[in-house]
Design brief:
The chain has about 230 residues and is α/β, with parallel strands linked by helices. Helix content is about 35%, strand content about 30%. Strand 4 and strand 5 form a beta hairpin. Helix 3 crosses helix 4, helix 3 packs parallel to helix 5 and helix 4 crosses helix 5. It is globular and about 50 Å long. The chain starts with a strand and ends with a strand.
């Protein structure tokens, strides 16, 4: 069985005037440890697909099986727990909590998981050092550059020891050097810890690094390339 299996996935948004078919009958699967990009222009359905895959949105039709769990059948509270213990998210806008330090932002998910303080401290220090921010543990987001904030977001996504990470346009606000550094960190973690990374992106730099690129157009898979 594939690690992630998506079958006949559809998402239709309705408003008072018309229907918008964001995702149109997608069949897709991922192996554990993939470093893959879902690519395409704005409005092609890649963020919708990522949100459904992460349990942040519900499909109109279709099934999603992750590691043997049928995500569609989970109740709301079960879906929250499933996300907490299986999925890490990296957002374009970072979504760091401004009043918390880098350390506190990273360990926040572990607080929710009920991890002991000693484990939280050790894991947070290890992750922030891994992303090159071991000397910025006590810095708040306002004191960090965009690239540094995104690296904190990556560390936070990894803190819960997720099975896979979903990254929605993670390089959109970064310059070339920050993008290269961030992708190198993600690639290293993918290889060393076998963490599955799935990006939604239209950034050529991300597509170049990815080992597989799935191109979407009008909510459908146009092409699926494995390098």
């Amino acid at each position: 069985m594939k690690f992630i299996e998506i079958r006949d996935l559809q998402k239709i948004y309705n408003d008072s005037e018309h229907e918008v078919h964001a995702v149109r009958g997608i069949d897709l699967s991922f192996e554990e440890g993939e470093f893959a990009a879902i690519a395409g222009p704005s409005g092609c359905g890649k963020t919708t697909l990522l949100n459904i895959l992460g349990g942040l949105d519900e499909p109109t039709r279709g099934t999603i099986n992750i590691g043997g769990t049928n995500v569609n059948e989970l109740k709301s509270s079960e879906r929250i727990n499933f996300r907490l213990n299986n999925i890490g998210f990296v957002f374009q806008a970072y979504n760091l909590i401004p009043v918390l330090t880098a350390k506190e932002n990273v360990e926040f998910i572990m607080h929710l998981q009920g991890r002991p303080k000693a484990e939280r401290d050790a894991r947070t220090k290890e992750l922030l050092e891994a992303v090159g921010l071991g000397d910025r543990l006590n810095s708040r987001p306002s004191k960090l550059s965009g690239g540094q904030q995104q690296r904190v977001a990556v560390a936070r996504a990894l803190a819960s020891k997720p099975k896979f990470i979903l990254a929605d346009e993670p390089t959109a606000n970064l310059d070339s050097k920050a993008t290269e550094n961030l992708l190198d960190i993600m690639e290293k973690l993918n290889k060393e810890e076998n963490i599955t990374f799935i990006f939604a992106t239209h950034d050529a730099r991300v597509m170049k690094k990815a080992k597989r690129v799935i191109y979407l157009e009008d909510g459908k898979i146009l092409k699926d390339e494995v390098k």
